[in-house]
Amino acid sequence: MILPQLGPHAQAKPSVKTTVVVLYVLLLIGTPAALFTYFYQAWRRVGTVPNKTVYFIWVGLENVAAVAVLALMAYPVVAFAVARLR
């Protein structure tokens, strides 16, 4: 079973901790790379779409949302690092 036993001194198994960290790091690396590729292609299409103004606004809003998601993903990493360095 992956979940630890309930109790005041319960701790996760080291293999579970390692797996979670590896998956989170892959997510932190893969997400910006995928978003960069997506937005690079989207901004190159601005000149070819028929309704440029709406497309420009939409891609701009997507950029803002993507930056917010990346910030939310990075927050736990920064909070953990700050807590460890104190």
What does this structure look like?
It is a single chain. By secondary structure, the chain is mainly alpha-helical. It is built from two helices and no strands. The longest helix has 34 residues, at 52-85. It is elongated.
Sheet with most strands: none
Strand content: under 5%
Class derived from helix and strand content: mainly alpha
**Beta-strand segment tally:** 0
Q: Give the N-terminus to C-terminus distance in angstroms.
A: 33 Å
Gyration radius from CA atoms, angstroms: 20 Å
Helix content: over 70%
The gross shape turns out to be elongated
Q: Uncertain regions: pLDDT < 50 for 5+ in a row? A: none
Please state the average pLDDT score: 87
Index terms:
86 residues; 76% helix; single chain; mainly alpha; elongated; 2 helices
Task: Record the SSE blueprint.
Blueprint: H1 14-44, H2 52-85
Summarize the structure.
The chain is 76% helix and 0% strand. It is built from two helices and no strands. The chain is elongated and about 60 Å long.
